[in-house]
Specification:
By secondary structure, this protein is an alpha/beta fold. It folds into 2 domains: about 280 residues, Roll (dip2346 fold like); about 130 residues, Cytidine Deaminase, domain 2 (3-Layer(aba) Sandwich). Helices cover about 45% and strands about 15% of the residues. Helix 8 packs parallel to helix 11.
Length: about 500
């Protein structure tokens, strides 16, 4: 069986990135505040558009700096008050702060401090502060500043940053991260620079964001895929005009960093008397662009990611969680990348089968490129059927072999209908796998099939109708990249 192609050198990235950060620390009196954008671990977007990039690469890189680094997690008080949800995990931002602290500690990284930004006495933020302190976690507060970010003289003063709590740190590298955007990471870094400077320490600031990649073309599919991923935020990639003016070199950044740069430069001048950076690009430390060794592989992977994001936007619109503007933006990006939804093979296969049978269907692409399908039956949903057919193919098990006996399925269906109040007797993917694992205890074929599941990680799957949250979550746990047509299976008004 062939394996999926790679185009990114992960080991080179780990080495080059950690060395570059060490160099940046040494440039600033051995104290660097590093704003960490995106996901520190579980960065599956990066692993999809840069095949070979491991989802925990940034974490592994930080582990090479573990003896020099400590982590501060920032969270906006308004996000605590609103119970803002991190949609990929289904948990609130405040709960994600606890998750992140535990994850960092489990990996051997120092994470002892939480910063609550834009604190204005919100009751939920006070409760969260108390909860953290009871757990032995240090909590600091930053306050809203009148005229932020444009009234620089007020911001860079004792009545601006000077009113914020000073975060006590002891290590040369301070990572400022957060559960999501809008958490105040940049302001946290700059506030610390102000306080450090007052203490006679010329600390530095740098920004670590993987995307957009600054040293590949503006309209490279990898960069377009980032725009697709942030379509709901209205982020736009653009040429960094300050870098072009200073060095005559074309680099890529995004609109928010370019727009805020003059303000940042003025803040640096207010703190230090000069700005150490000539452009937003100068502030970055990302080395990912230097580690692409097969450009076409990364281009194709990114094209496919844009199509996936398109389907996700359509699904969000269908469930009233997204907007038409988000869909329109991704459609424009698809035109720029010269791609269309028909270039997703599993979508074509699933939709063709659904059309032939006039019922829901699913298609799954195996690591070697073969596509298996599944259709709705009296016993199984289409996605569960496709999953079973996939593990049969991978395990070289004959098509006529029943991995799960109807005698196992029927009692589960009876339980769902008679006792659990379900109207749908068909088994979800999680129920199928539980049944599969039970059969594996006595059946060799089923045992072989179950052992194939890890091979599905990174494979593509498409369904002709939107799936239940249970099925969506289960495909995610298996590491499959799922898309669905923006169609409900039934015409009910409540799903």
């Amino acid at each position: 069986m062939t394996t999926m192609k790679t185009g990114f050198d992960n080991q080179k990235y780990l080495t080059m990135q950690s060395e570059h950060i060490r160099d940046r620390i040494s440039q600033f009196g051995n104290k660097l505040y590093l704003e960490f954008g995106g996901k520190l671990f579980d960065d599956y977007h990066a692993s999809r558009v840069l095949p070979g990039f491991e989802p925990d690469s940034k974490l592994k890189m930080l582990l090479q700096l573990a003896d020099q680094a400590e982590i501060v997690i920032a969270i906006n008080a308004a996000d605590i008050e609103k119970n803002k949800i991190r949609h990929d995990l289904g948990i609130t931002y405040d709960m994600d702060v606890l998750r992140l602290i535990q994850e960092f500690r489990d990996k051997g990284l120092r994470a002892e401090s939480v910063l609550i930004t834009r604190f204005a006495g919100q009751s939920a933020a006070i409760q969260f502060k108390t909860k953290l302190e009871n757990l032995g976690i240090r909590v600091y507060r930053h306050y809203p500043i009148d005229g932020y970010p444009h009234n620089v003289s007020h911001i860079v003063s004792d009545n601006g940053y000077g009113k914020n709590d000073y975060i006590e740190t002891t290590r040369p590298l301070v990572i400022i991260t957060a559960p999501g955007p809008g958490s105040g990471k940049m302001s946290a870094c700059l506030s610390q620079l102000y306080h450090e400077n007052k203490r006679g320490i010329k600390a530095g600031y740098a920004k670590f964001e993987t995307f957009p990649i600054w040293n590949i073309p503006l309209k490279h599919p990898v960069n377009l895929a980032y725009e697709a991923a942030t379509a709901d935020l209205n982020d736009v990639n653009m040429i960094d005009p300050f870098h072009l003016d200073a060095y005559g070199i074309t680099t890529v950044n995004y609109n928010r960093d370019v727009e805020i740069y003059p303000v940042l430069a003025a803040m640096f001048e207010g703190i230090y008397g000069y700005c150490p950076y000539k452009s937003p690009t100068d502030m970055g430390v990302n080395m990912a662009g230097n580690c692409i060794f097969d450009d076409e592989v990364c281009r194709e992977a990114s094209r496919q990611e844009i199509i996936r994001r398109y389907y996700q936007a359509l699904n969000r619109l269908a469930t009233d969680e997204g907007s038409k503007e988000e869909v329109y933006k991704i459609e424009l990006l698809m035109k720029q990348a010269k791609i269309h939804a028909g270039q997703r093979p599993v979508a074509v296969a699933a939709n063709e089968l659904a059309s032939r049978n006039n019922s829901p269907a699913a298609a799954l692409q195996l690591p070697d490129g073969r596509i298996v399908t599944g259709k709705t039956s009296a016993l199984l949903g289409a996605s569960a059927a496709a999953l079973l057919n996939a593990v049969k193919e991978l395990g070289r098990i004959a098509d006529e072999v029943h991995l799960i006996s109807p005698a196992f399925i029927e009692p589960i269906q009876a339980l769902k209908i008679r006792y659990l109040g379900s109207r749908n007797p068909r088994l979800h993917t999680d129920e199928v796998l539980i049944a599969l694992s039970m059969c594996a205890a006595t059946d060799q074929n089923t045992k072989i099939a179950l052992e194939q599941l890890p091979k599905l990680r990174g494979c593509q799957v498409h369904t002709s109708v939107m799936l239940s949250p249970v099925d969506i979550k289960f495909f995610s746990k298996l590491g499959l990249d799922l898309t669905s047509e923006p169609i409900y299976e039934t015409k009910k008004i409540y799903h």
